[in-house]
Write a structure and sequence with these properties.
Radius of gyration: 21 Å
Number of strands: 10
Number of helices: 8
Structural class: alpha+beta
Distance between the termini: 42 Å
């Protein structure tokens, strides 16, 4: 006789930040917790990211996790986790005055993501050449080498920009970046002026991130501090 399988149906709903689409999800089960723990023990950023995406895929219905923008995936992981292990997390914060470590409780349901609906995704470089940008997925990050731990800060920025580029547009062509060799894309970026490069970089800086602001009083010296959390790493890593 087959043993029963518990808790595998969706129990909650949430909205995907970038689209407003409402989806159903369930909390993590033991099998997802094992995946996450094994990834964290490896301390390998690629394995951790794959574990995060696998858990989202397991716990949601009708979602292609490889098409999710990075901030969508971060938010969805946070919401699933909040229903799995508690709707709050305790973080350690250093007092700006005495450097005492304070345990700060963060409410997961107060995490925010601001998506600018007016953000332009076409960057004009010259009257005849523009770059169409997109919110990157973690699959884009993997393909572009953003998660490589051996990359310098400059290389990481360049790889992030490549992950955000969808196509290069001219009056005659719309050249898809995914069809071009990475070396060719890098040569294109290297041919830009500083002003042109900065225009593309501005889009990357505008990619939404999870954030939460928290004020707390140091338990040691009484100093009032402001804690600003941004991105998945600040909340969980």
């Amino acid at each position: 006789m087959a043993l029963p399988r518990l808790n595998e149906s969706a129990q909650y709903t949430m909205k995907i930040p970038s689209t407003g689409e409402e989806i159903k999800y369930r909390p993590f089960l033991v099998k997802e917790q094992k995946i996450l723990l094994m990834a964290q023990e490896s301390q390998d950023s690629m394995q951790i990211m794959n574990a995060l995406l696998t858990c989202i895929e397991n716990c949601t219905q009708g979602i292609n996790v490889f098409n999710l923008a990075t901030f969508d995936a971060d938010y969805m992981f946070t919401q699933i986790r909040s229903k799995s292990v508690g709707e709050s997390a305790t973080l350690s914060a250093t007092c700006s005055s005495c450097e005492e470590q304070n345990n700060i409780k963060i409410d997961m349901d107060k995490i925010k993501i601001d998506v600018d609906s007016k953000l332009k995704n076409v960057v004009e470089l010259t009257p005849s050449v523009s770059v169409k940008m997109k919110y990157p997925t973690y699959n884009d990050f993997i393909q572009a080498g953003v998660l490589s731990e051996s990359s310098s800060v400059t290389e990481a920025l360049l790889n992030t920009i490549i992950a955000c580029m969808e196509s290069i547009m001219t009056p005659e062509d719309n050249i898809l970046i995914r069809d071009e060799a990475k070396e060719e894309v890098e040569e294109f970026l290297n041919s830009l002026t500083t002003e042109q490069f900065d225009k593309i970089s501005e889009f990357v800086k505008s990619i939404p991130k999870m954030y939460q602001k928290k004020e707390y009083t140091c338990s040691n010296c009484g100093t009032k501090n402001k804690l600003e959390l941004e991105g998945l790493n600040d909340f969980f890593m």
